Amino acid sequence: MTAEKTTMAFGWRLYGLGVMALGALCLAWGTFDTGQPVPRNFPDRTALAYAVAVFMLAAGAAVEWRRTVAWGAAALSVYYAVVVVILLNGRVLLAHYTQYGTYEGIAEQLAITAGGLLVYAANARIDAALAARLTRVAQLMFGVCALIFGGAHFVYMNLTAPLVPKWLPPSQEFWACATGLGHIAAGVAILTGVRARLAAILLTAMYASFTLLVHGPMLLANPSSHWIWSENAVNIALIGVAWLVADSLALTRR
């Protein structure tokens, strides 16, 4: 493994861990992840949920192992892009295209797709030019997702601000706005290539702080909530994706 891939390995293993956590939650609850809106009346829904959970666990585990990392990343990229983003969330988009939350939900799943593409491009035995194109597509996808995440902080300020710990000065609203602006600034930087790697590094640190300050405490307060467990798992995956974007941008500059 080259020094560059060794650096990226930290990101892709966090990414794989996040996906495995999502799969484990699906097994534990016997239902689909909250970001995969399968209709309640879908035939054999529970059996399909277990099958998808096993797939996510297997693909996430494959990402953790050097010999299977490209296969695992390819499987996750296709599943999330075609099934989760287009088929499942596409149906939701058609029904609720006026609601900003619909786009935020799609952005979460699209960011996970971008992570799979980055891992695949870095590890698959494919043409260097194709790998570079896939990497750039994934970077742009993540940049768009960051913009949407940032916008959600302002559209849903009444929901975002209460998530900030009350003891954190100067106020909950300040940090809700600051992190929203941080997402937007990072998205613009990644899309334009201006200070893009610094932006991705700061996003990685911000997502890590969310685990410590927001999602972790929420889980301790309400450990029976599937949604909170899922938010923790998604955030772990996003830390990995942001890390991958930062490292891929460093490689692109070289």
UniProtKB/TrEMBL annotation:
Pfam families noted in UniProt: DoxX
InterPro entries: DoxX
Membrane disposition: Multi-pass membrane protein
Origin superkingdom: Bacteria
Protein name: DoxX family membrane protein
Keywords in alphabetical order: Membrane, Transmembrane, Transmembrane helix
Intracellular or extracellular location(s): Membrane
UniProt organism field: Rhodanobacter terrae
Membrane-crossing segments per the record: 12-32, 47-63, 70-90, 110-128, 140-161, 173-191, 198-221, 233-252
Keyword hit for Transmembrane helix: yes
Regions annotated as coiled coil: none
